[in-house]
Amino acid sequence: MSKSKSSSSSKRASSPKPTSRKTIAPKLVVAAKPQAPAAEDNELHDEANQVKAINRTQAVIHFEMNGTITDANDNFLNAVGYRRDEIVGKHHSMFVDPQEVRTDDYRRFWDKFATGT
Hints:
Shape: extended
Helix content: 40-55%
Order of helices and strands: HHEEHHHH
Strand content: 5-15%
Oligomer: single chain
């Protein structure tokens, strides 16, 4: 009445052997609980948000240390009536009265600015 184990194992269908094998690397997904950022990270994040807020609400222009304009935000461009491509690469003096540009004070301002003093 009972079947022997050897007869059932010999009747197993054999599967065809694959002609080529592909190795699939297992994927491991680790979900870590976010940690509270360090105080320095919070401070940097806060400062970045302040800069974003300033750029949204104020007219901002960026210069090289020699007075060459490198960028300006839309608020600045709207205030002065220029497009970005009209001012980038030009000197700050384009916004200043020509008589003022020729003064020693104006020259000293940029000399001090360039040296960081």
